[in-house]
Amino acid sequence: MLEDLHIASIVVTTIRNAPVLMFAALAGLFAERSGVVDIGLEGKILASAFASAAVAYATQNPWWGVVAAIAVSIAIAMAQAFVSITQKGNQLVAGIAINIAMSGLTFVIAQYFFQQGGRTPDLGDARFTDIVLPGAAALANIPFIGWLYTQVLGGQSILVYLAFLLLPVVHWVVYHSRFGLRLRACGENPHAADAAGVSVTKTRYMAMLVAGTLCSFSGSYLAIVQSGFFLRDMSAGAGYLALTALVFGNWRPLHTVLGCLMFAMFQAIQIQIEGVDLPVVGRIPGSLIQMIPYVVTVVVLAGLMAKSVAPKAIGQPFVKSR
Predict the structure, then answer these.
(1) Range of 114's domain?
(2) Which residues, in sequence order, are bridge partners of residue 282?
(3) 40 close to 194: Cβ distance less than 8 angstroms
(4) Which residues contact 81 (CB under 8 A, 6 or more apart)?
(5) Is 260 inside any structural domain?
(6) Is 268 within a domain?
(7) pLDDT tens readout for residues 174-229
């Protein structure tokens, strides 16, 4: 039944598509909860995807690719923090500048080193392999249970498990830790936080450090797990979809992840219906099918933007009272 309806394939594809959005959305959650608008998620995803693919290919080790992605993404996040927090620059402009710069810079560097039209070579064995759970072979032929154990719970890359394990960790950090309390205070009322002895600048820098680290996994997953290479603008708006999921989730970890899963599901459905003759409407052109996630994004923003309550101090540079 599952195979006939392609539900099984949609579920598995959703799980495998979601981490790119989840890592980026949780990264944006830390930045924006502290009061910094992180439009630059798209640029950090691209930069970390290129760094991870290039280094993984050079070393033939995906872990070194992840390390390189973390270093590059943190460097960009710290530059963004310097402009937005220390220099009190326009946060939207800084984020857009990062996106534009990384879109062009990654292509130029990839072309310079690899001479393949801005693309890195295929990684081959320098990719993360899927984890096979114990007893998978014995359970594989059992209806539903075999599919659930071998393809949903098992058969995933280590970064998929990391993405879903991050959810309870992020929830605890944001709502049950001292850092989370300070983070939320700086995003809601930085002057009150400053009066209580909290360093708003330090807290926002720490939030951007966490955001840079989490965003690097999004790029790493895109290059090392999903594609096996880097291609120009391969993020295809994932950073903006992650921001939409953040709005959808009202800047709360669980609801944000649910938004990511929703977008990942529509991407999975897009793959399923492409090239298929549907009842009444027949075969839908591929270009229209590829629009589905973005049309959903517009609908979500139009319907929920007015209802979402962003951190009150988001986008506002903090100027210490005298």
Answers:
(1) 2-127+138-234
(2) 278
(3) no
(4) 36, 204, 205, 208, 209
(5) no
(6) no
(7) 999 999 999 999 999 999 999 888 999 999 999 999 999 999 999 999 999 988 89
